[in-house]
UniProtKB/TrEMBL annotation, chain A:
Lineage, top ranks: Eukaryota, Metazoa, Chordata, Craniata, Vertebrata
Transport listed as a keyword: yes
Residue stretches spanning the membrane: 20-45, 107-126, 138-156, 293-313, 325-343, 349-370
Alphabetical UniProt keywords: Ion channel, Ion transport, Membrane, Potassium, Transmembrane, Transmembrane helix, Transport
GO biological process, one term: stabilization of membrane potential
Compartments in which it is found: Membrane
Membrane topology of this protein: Multi-pass membrane protein
Annotated ranges, domain Potassium channel: 104-162, 301-371
One function term, GO molecular function aspect: outward rectifier potassium channel activity
Family: Belongs to the two pore domain potassium channel (TC 1.A.1.8) family.
Protein name as catalogued: Potassium channel subfamily K member 18
Organism: Tinamus guttatus (White-throated tinamou)
UniProtKB/TrEMBL annotation, chain B:
Biological-process GO terms, alphabetical: stabilization of membrane potential
The organism of origin for this protein: Tinamus guttatus (White-throated tinamou)
Family: Belongs to the two pore domain potassium channel (TC 1.A.1.8) family.
Signal peptide stretch: none
Topology of the protein relative to the lipid bilayer: Multi-pass membrane protein
Protein name per the record: Potassium channel subfamily K member 17
Main location per the UniProt record: membrane
A single cellular component GO annotation: plasma membrane
Cellular compartments annotated: Membrane
Any Pfam family hit: Ion_trans_2
Keyword annotations from UniProtKB, A to Z: Ion channel, Ion transport, Membrane, Potassium, Transmembrane, Transmembrane helix, Transport
């Protein structure tokens, strides 16, 4: 036994490292596979689209011919020229094709193709670059078919982490709120009873000690028999009971997680971690479904998040001011992606890819919450309409 | 020359002589709203005034969850419809477990036909695209990527019948719901 106690100390350090490794590994695996997929796609598209033969097409030559003949037939009068030029060029520019003025080697270099691949599997789809060759289009569809579910998987996986962080912060905030409420309650009680200081102090001390564990608030309230007759305290009691019910839910959930037992047999230990790792794959997305924070908080978080990027972006995109950058970030993070805003340095935008993934995450969670709230709202409306219909019958 | 053409191209959508889907009249704006809340985002029309952009942001914040709710309910409808059919067939022919698999495969094929294989025929008839281009457009639209290189109803030389836009909007709605259902199915299968 003594020998085991001695040898278990360095082993525990190793075990902890292993634990951390196996906890982080699945998430890193997903992200890494997405990155590899993006890189492979970039290589593929830069090869296929970059080597497109640019033959000056018939249409391009006719366009240039038309332009030349219009400018040749202009008179010397400048103001007359403007009107005539505008009119004649209107129809000519209608025949414009984007592909004439695009140099495939420049646009479809590695970073350009990487940017394109990102717009495909995030489904943003700006449309400033798009495949023109037939193979490119088929490949694009195939790439999207596998890339979009992979992206969705990464989003859901990271969403779990974000959801746990959010709900923990929110719970801490609510605990703080309940503590403040309870201390206010005790201070109100203090002011009304101006009897012995000792009993007050003991009461305060008693409540101070008990408040550290929210489950015991019920005991505090039950022990104060005077409280039973005061309606204000009743309301607070209801609030506390609701809070306690919530706490019970969360503690119940944490108890259902598998309890790892320390065993002296390392093979068993390894087996346990592997099974828990494999089990965790099934739990992807479950945290997201449990999330229950107010939607206004999520909207606030989104606006703050986008404002941060909108403040930084104009530093290198000099033709965007704060409002335009905000609009651009919003349209990107909701994956709408109009493509009306032209980026001067798309490469720098790639460096923000972690920001973009987390941003899409937050927007995704907010939209999911919005969905749930909408359904609740609809249920209320329908039940209200249903009640209205029943009462006239009576 | 490229800059001039770039600037002029955005000007073309604001001025006249384009199709009704390329102007900010009712049908063009309706198509724009749909492309926003389904997050397709073609970009052939996009707000350029500051007030328009602010409104677009709020519109999207409320519209996208609404769209998700609608897609979910349509998906549930389609699923229950398929299950009803499976039930009926099972009762009639007294098949066992094979029936559910058959029904699922059938539903998948019907959905594929209706939403991915037939619409390109319509597009090639009305837009003058080839079948492949129509298929590419359908795929890019239904996955909500929406590059904007192909957009329906943007050719000023062609006349489009009145029912065209409405049918395409319906197709987008049901097609997206079907695709979302398909992805959920695939994820369930993988698990």
């Amino acid at each position: 036994e003594f020998r085991m106690a001695l040898t278990s100390q360095p082993l525990q350090g190793k075990k902890r490292c292993k634990k951390i490794f196996w906890a982080v590994f699945p998430h890193a695996c997903f992200i890494l596979s997405l990155v590899i997929y993006a890189f492979l796609g970039a290589l593929m598209f830069s090869h296929i689209e970059g080597n497109r033969k640019v033959n000056s097409s018939e249409g391009y030559r006719n366009f240039l011919q038309g332009l030349w003949s219009i400018s040749k037939n202009l008179s010397d009068n400048m103001t007359e020229n403007e009107e005539v030029f505008k009119e004649k060029i209107y129809n000519l520019l209608g025949t414009f094709e984007h592909e004439w003025f695009v140099d495939p080697k420049k646009i479809w270099n590695f970073f350009g193709s990487l940017f394109f691949c990102c717009t495909v599997f995030t489904t943003v789809g700006y449309g400033n670059t798009y495949p023109i060759t037939r193979t490119g289009k088929y490949l694009c569809m195939l790439y999207a078919l596998f890339g979009i579910p992979l992206m969705f998987l990464v989003l859901t996986d990271m969403g779990d982490i974000l959801a746990t962080v959010l709900s923990k912060c929110y719970n801490e905030f609510r605990k703080l709120q309940s503590k403040i409420l309870a201390s206010k309650l005790c201070s109100v009680f203090m002011c009304k009873k101006e009897s012995e200081t000792q009993s007050r102090r003991s009461l305060l001390m008693k409540s101070k000690v008990i408040l550290n564990e929210p489950l015991s608030i019920v005991e505090v309230l039950k022990s104060q028999s005077a409280l039973k007759r005061k309606p204000v305290q009743y309301r607070n009691a209801e609030i506390f009971e609701m809070l306690i019910a919530r706490e019970k839910e969360y503690t119940k959930l944490s108890r259902t997680k598998s309890i790892e037992r320390w065993s002296s047999c390392p093979e068993l230990e390894r087996g346990k971690t592997m099974t828990s790792v494999i089990e965790n794959f099934d739990k992807i997305g479950k945290e997201l479904e449990k999330l229950d924070v107010p939607i206004l908080l999520m909207v606030l978080v989104i606006f703050v998040y986008i404002s941060c990027a909108a403040a930084i972006l104009p530093k290198w995109e000099t033709n965007l001011d704060f409002q335009e950058a905000f609009y651009f970030c919003f349209i990107t993070l909701t994956t709408i992606g109009f493509g009306d805003t032209q980026l001067q340095h798309p490469r720098f935008f790639l460096f923000l890819s972690l920001y973009i993934i987390i941003g899409m995450e937050i927007v995704f969670i907010a939209f999911k919450l919005g969905q749930d709230r909408l359904i609740v709202f609809y249920k209320k409306v329908i039940s209200f309409c249903g009640e209205k219909k029943i009462t006239p019958k009576k | 020359l490229q800059d001039i053409i770039q600037a002029y191209k955005s000007g073309i959508t604001l001025q006249g002589n384009s199709t009704s889907l390329g102007r900010w009249d009712f049908s063009g704006s309706f198509f724009f709203s749909i492309s926003t809340i389904t997050t397709i985002g073609y970009g052939n029309l996009s707000p350029s005034t500051a007030a328009g952009r602010v409104f677009c942001v709020f519109f999207a914040v409320f519209g996208i969850p609404l769209n998700l709710v609608l897609l979910n309910s349509i998906g549930q409808l389609m699923l229950s419809g398929a299950q009803h059919c499976a039930h009926h067939l099972e009762e009639k022919f007294h098949w066992q477990k094979k029936a559910t698999l058959l029904i699922r495969v059938c539903a998948l094929l019907i959905g594929l036909l209706l939403f991915l294989l037939l619409p390109p025929v319509l597009f090639s008839a009305k837009e003058g695209w080839s079948y492949e281009e129509g298929f590419y457009y359908s795929f890019i639209t239904l996955t909500t990527i929406g590059f904007g290189d192909y957009v329906i109803g943007m050719n000023p030389d062609r006349t489009y019948p009145g029912w065209y836009k409405n049918v395409v909007s319906l197709w987008i709605l049901f097609g997206m719901a079907w695709l979302a259902l398909l992805i959920k199915f695939c994820i369930n299968l993988l698990e």
